[in-house]
């Protein structure tokens, strides 16, 4: 039973080099540790460059945003900058399902990758336990005479597991007769879709965490009064369960660059960004902080500016848009891409006409990022089948639509050395490192009415011509307008597979009617969730799941996580 | 965000003093670590004394078995012995439910207690993830055309959470129409009732773990062929999830004595003992190893000898039976004790006649332990209301029924100093420390037929007059007789509240007909599970749950876990 894959550098040394006080770093098993962030409050402000990595509308295989974030941080180190990459912790659902792990790839990885992909330090498990404790408290209160007068039909709180488990999407709980609880319809979601995960990623302190959890709303009384975790007196125990989960995790890249891994809110149903606290630690210690937002710039990207940065209190100095020739060819109409299947092989072969057609998607994403008034660097994540003509076409299109630069990056094959050009472009774009930090330019002011916020995002970011409200959504709007949630930012839940709400609309759809089905208030996370069409919060496993390839080798190493 | 409650001694120092090589000890957050047990194979055999702590039939509040185990290990340290206590990890179900934490009490605790009670190093979460991954794989296989021809009505594999959640006892999963899986009845159990937890506690290596998991049986084909995790190709991923969970956890007591915390199988539904691997590490490093078996000697005690010790390859040198005057009074008929309610106050007041009546329960437990040919020391776990006459009566009864000694222990109030007499008696009873280890004397040979094994346990341990088999159990027996499981040891699932199957039969019931409802083969754990009457594997929360008292203080400490 030997240790995991050899770490590049002792992690305590990585923490020390980053300037984390010895007493603030706690090892949590081989290759991983947690950072008590209290020291940041006593650390003088540092002129760090804050670099957002976002992406085009991806293929189901992803366009290498994580790998690019890791490679870029390593490339910046090659240029002599003290760099940190901040990432979300991968959910185990995709690890065992289709997509594989979330530790990067090739020579740009977070190590030990199997630790990152399975459990890490248990934060997602802690989130699931806190979430499910509230669920158990709800059904227990119903069972014991319902003293809060909970209307069971209004209970919106699910249960969660950190796995893809289709059969749990719709369930009936409480069966079995007296002594087995009150039967009612229930549902399970994947743990990273929990509001508790969004809260973890947005909380600034244990006190903030506790307050947010106390406000979590799970349903209403029969008189329509909203009911919270505090009403069930379960908020304290939920907060206690998350005590150490709130400490950001430290790991390192394949070249020994510090990697802060913390929080994993879904990017389609939640705000899709790593934790505010993790970025605070990084910004207090490094010259350059590279952070990745989930899915395209329309999803995690927009939410980075409008939700995460508002809590953090600053915006990024530069945004990197990751594109691949493969992805652009798909938007140009090559191949039939289906979720849960391998990508068609023709996507990996040069196809200049299709790529030219698909560039409209990239142009849209550059435009989205430029609305937030940051310089944009396009990172062309190099693929084996890319032709010179294609790369030239991407560069030209990027520069002519307002990107600061467009650079090929070969970090997958070459590690940080392959990302030096990208790193140089990013530094050039982000301006004077000792100058003022760039002010935050959110898309909308918080005092804008909720319906206008939604219309603003749908039209300016997604390219919708109009927003269509369901009757339920209209009622939701009317209700929310009278509450403090009217001043919350909006998190729109929609597909990642299209700029629109419809996964079939590839490339650069516009003018469509964007449908809002339901609007919920997430009082603890502090945002309004607007749901567009069907959004699945519990993925299923494919017919040939990735778990079948995973196991322990004779030496006790974890193998088979791609 | 400061560190947890001050640790007595730096834990790395505790590990080092115990003789664990530096490279084999991994910190896993403040106050806890894991031990890579590989070094044990290279460590010369050591003449350690192995001390089992078992108990009488308890009240719902428990009679202080954990506290006594901790106090005894500390008492042995006071006498100059290098001691370790090995315990199961507490489930979070009871922590948030009725019973409170499992970290001992008073001045005999494992610290930091809130770490022990919540998450520890995530082993239970890892067990739950592995368990639920198999469940997801089963329903996924049903959904994707059922290539293994699984008969859905034979699926016996549950899902689990580490919480008390009554509403999940009986559920219907797979609702919602096409794309949402195949509807079928399902159930959830508490994670510590999972066969995976039993496997974790019995496995000797990663290889052994992987083999056991591959054999786990979840149901049958429509032709009646048993189906395993290996048939679904999910065993490798399940094993990978448990890679580090198999490493025993190290903590320390309130006086700095090493505490190895590992595994937490239920004692009513599973074998109820801490891990074999944890005890191996302890026996390789300490003079005295104190280990606790769950509930009474009829449950965890019998299974310690017949299941755990067979895997470990040795028996204990001495058994300690924990009794309280309070518990004996209850068996003597004082008060109306109800699960989920506070104990009646009259139980804490001296009552010599009732105690004399209840001593029959202690006598039965001494007799059970003596059947395994070990010397028995009765530990009278001192309570405030105990009278001198009562203590004298306990001592006399213990000595006259064959106990080696009976000693009052005040470790709750005084820590290790209060357990010195108990420690001395235990050393005296366990004989020459440099002599041969006592040979293992199980109750029955493995080649005895399964029905005879069950009859032997029911009559010799529980005091039954006969065993009554359900029709299902008879069919189960006939089926099992033809398989290799016929040579497995038997684990009987029954109530802890009585020596019999009926919780209402207090004190010393005998001659009753013991009903076996169902007999299952746990191929991975390697035992046959015989279920007596109704055994609840998913507890419920009470009307006033313990979670309502738990929270974080302003200083970030976890408060309110009793």
TrEMBL record, chains A, B:
<keyword id="KW-0067">ATP-binding</keyword>
<comment type="pathway">
    <text>One-carbon metabolism; tetrahydrofolate interconversion.</text>
</comment>
<dbReference type="InterPro" id="IPR027417">
    <property type="entry name" value="P-loop_NTPase"/>
</dbReference>
<dbReference type="InterPro" id="IPR000559">
    <property type="entry name" value="Formate_THF_ligase"/>
</dbReference>
<keyword id="KW-0554">One-carbon metabolism</keyword>
<dbReference type="GO" id="GO:0004329">
    <property type="term" value="F:formate-tetrahydrofolate ligase activity"/>
</dbReference>
<dbReference type="GO" id="GO:0035999">
    <property type="term" value="P:tetrahydrofolate interconversion"/>
</dbReference>
<dbReference type="InterPro" id="IPR020628">
    <property type="entry name" value="Formate_THF_ligase_CS"/>
</dbReference>
<keyword id="KW-0547">Nucleotide-binding</keyword>
<dbReference type="Pfam" id="PF01268">
    <property type="entry name" value="FTHFS"/>
</dbReference>
<feature type="binding site">
    <location>
        <begin position="59"/>
        <end position="66"/>
    </location>
    <ligand>
        <name>ATP</name>
    </ligand>
</feature>
<protein>
    <recommendedName>
        <fullName>Formate--tetrahydrofolate ligase</fullName>
        <ecNumber>6.3.4.3</ecNumber>
    </recommendedName>
</protein>
<keyword id="KW-0436">Ligase</keyword>
<comment type="similarity">
    <text>Belongs to the formate--tetrahydrofolate ligase family.</text>
</comment>
<dbReference type="GO" id="GO:0005524">
    <property type="term" value="F:ATP binding"/>
</dbReference>
